[in-house]
Amino acid sequence: MSFNWINAEEFSFNSFLLMDRWIVRMICNNYAGCGEYCDNLSIALAYNPSVAWYFAHKSPESKPSIEKMIAMAPKNLTPHEIRKAEVFVIHAMETAVVYVYPDIMNQNCDYIYGWDKQLLFELADFTDKVVLDLGSGTGRLAFAAAEKAKSVYASEPTDMLREYMRDKIKRENINNVVVVDGTIEKIPYEDNSFDIAMSGHVVGDNYDAQIAELSRVVKNGGYIIDCIGEDNRKREPDEELIKRGFESLYHVSISGGDIYRYRKLVRK
Ligand SMILES: C[S@@+](CC[C@H](N)C(=O)[O-])C[C@H]1O[C@@H](n2cnc3c(N)ncnc32)[C@H](O)[C@@H]1O
Question: Nearest to residue 257, comparing CAs of 141, 114, 122, 94?
Fold first, then answer.
């Protein structure tokens, strides 16, 4: 799916030097051996040895795919042909590219810039609560919750986004948000640590395991919240969440998208 959040022509292929291991692994391994994407990635890596070196060292598990791709790249390409391949890959990976440019992510991603924090506050009472935000991104949910909560733990596996949030905390003297590394698959906190565990655009790869982890860290009587931002996509409610006991709240976004927000009361 293409979101057109960026104009790939304007981005250097060196952007990939800012990426974390989990993204490098996704770029190299998810797509290994697959048609047009792989052909272009092969060229881009073969003609950008610094990026290829960085990928192979940052994600050693991807080294065999990287070597295979470099070996299959055609020789003696023109600068124009190389740039075309780079732009193809940058465009294909735009969702990962925006993670290393948090300001651009805030400006260009409709789910962030078009969002109103009241949409979060309608889902639960955050007053004086201890809150976890999984996959915080630039902190859309975390900083909103912090206006009411006692403390917010913003967990984010992408280094550039963690640093973006830390800079914002310092700049704006925010004293109740803590930024941490971590993924939803293995939340770095003890059982029953939070009143609310929330996320947006994160849950979905493995509902059972992810919801079990969220439930584990929420106290009895607390909430799990899934609150996506605003966009123009037509969608159906997420039956996987509903059949696991989530309540959904629906509205149409200003740009005509079907937006479902979800909450689940945790009983232990
Ligand atoms: C589409 S962004 C959404 C950011 C933010 N939740 C929001 O709605 O504004 C997805 C975020 O999830 C993070 N992420 C990716 N895989 C993750 C995982 N397994 N566990 C936790 N976060 C993850 C990404 O680094 C990115 O910041």
Answer: 114
